[in-house]
Amino acid sequence: MKKIPLRRCVVTKEQLPKKELLRIVRDKDGNVSIDLIGKANGRGAYIKKDLEVLKLAKDKKILDRALEVHIEDTLYDEIEEIIKKQ
After folding, report:
1. Which end of the chain is more exposed for a tag (fewer CB within 10 A), N or C?
2. What is the rounded average pLDDT of the residues 69-74?
């Protein structure tokens, strides 16, 4: 039986399989990006692939706190597009 990697969503605090989450990464230079592969270097935060969860993260600035950097609205728009494609 293969072990399924679990990660915790920074918004809902749920432990979910890694495939159900989206990883957002801040690199050592402070640049924030979406990590679709899940292996990028830097501080990562996982968010559930759900538009309601994304809205809550944006309103309460949860990703900003988790990654210790200001996140632009354009990144939230990119995340929203990725979630809609799922």
Report:
1. N
2. 95
